[in-house]
Amino acid sequence: MSTRPIEVLIVDDSGVVRMLLAHLLEGDTRFRVAGAVDGGVAALEFVANRLPDVVLMDIHMEGMDGFEVARRIMETRPVPIVMCSGVTDPRAVATSFRAYEAGAVAVIEKPAAFEHPEYERLARELVDTVRLMSEVRVVKRWPRGRHAITPPLPTSQPVRRAGTGVRVVGIGASTGGPPALQTLLAGLPKDFPAPVLVVQHITAGFLPGLAEWLSQTTPLHVQIAAHGLEARSGHVYLAPDDFHLGLDAQGCIRLAKEAPENGLRPAVDHMFRSLAQCCGSQAVGVLLTGMGKDGALALKALRDCGAHTIVQDKPSSVVHGMPGAAIALGAAGQVLSIDRIADALCRIVIQDKQQCGVRT
After folding, report:
1. Active site residue: 12, 53, 58, 294, which one?
2. Does the annotation mark 227 as catalytic?
3. Which of 173, 243, 240, 230 has its CA nearest to residue 201?
C-alpha cells in the first residue's frame, strides 16, 4: 500500500488564506502542499505542468473566478476539485453551489482565523474533505458548446395527483449529495404526486443556499422543513440543521431534537424509521452517495415492511459508504445509477396508481 503523501494545490488570491490553508494541511503527515498560487491563470499553468492529487480553491477570486478555473481544469487535465467559500449569505452560498456544475466534487466553508470559535470544526472538516476527495475518480468534460451532451429527461408519463398508494418519498445523502440530489430532482415532474423528504448532511449554514440552488435548478418547490407543516405533493422538504426529520400519521412534518444517531443530527436512519412507522409499504426510501453507514439499517426496515427501496450504485457515487452498507444489509430493492433513479421513482408511482385503479 502506497504511503505517498496526498499532493494538494492551493488556489486563493489572499496570501493570508494561502498560508492558513497550507498550515492546516502540512500539520497532517498525509498531505504535501504541491503549490500555493494566487489566482486562476497561475492555477491553470500549474496543473498543465504538474498534476496534483486534489485542488483546494477559493470560489470568489479577482479576474478568473473559481467556476471558470474549475471548468477549464475539467476540460483539460481533470483532477478532484474542492471549492471553499468564506461567504455565508444565503444567496451567495446558493451561487457557490454552481461549483458542482463546473465540476467540483465538494463545496465547504473556508476556516476562519485561529481565534474564531468554529475554527477547529471547520479546519477538521476541510482536512477530512480534502483527504476523502483526493480518492474520487473524475473524468474529462467536453468544453461548453462543443460535443456537450445534455442527459435526457425521464421518459415516464407525467404523473397526476396520487391515489391511495405511495404517500411519501424519503431521500438520504451525505458526501457528494448535492449534485446527486440535483440530478435526481431535476428528473421529476413538477406535479410529482408525493412529498419528498430529504436528509442531506451538510456544513451548518449552507442549507439555505442548497435549498435556493435546488429550487432554481429543479422543477419542484424546495424548502427547509418546519415542524407541523403539512407535507404536500410536488414539494421537497430539507431537514434543518441540527434537527431530525420525520413524518407523523397525519402526514405532517415532525422535527425532533432527539439524540444524534451515528453521531449525526439530522440522521437518515431517523427519517427512514419514521417513514416505516407512519407509512410502511406506502413509503419509498432512496439512499444516495455518502460516507459512513447512516440510513442503511432503517432502509432495511423500510424494505422489510414492503416499501420500495432504491440505492445509488458505486460507479455514480462520489463515496459509496452509505449505499454500500445498505446493499450489504440487503436493504436495496434496486441499485441504480443516479441518472436512472428519477425515472424509477416515476415508474413506481405510476405502477402503484395503476394497481389502485387510478388512470395515469
Report:
1. 294
2. no
3. 173
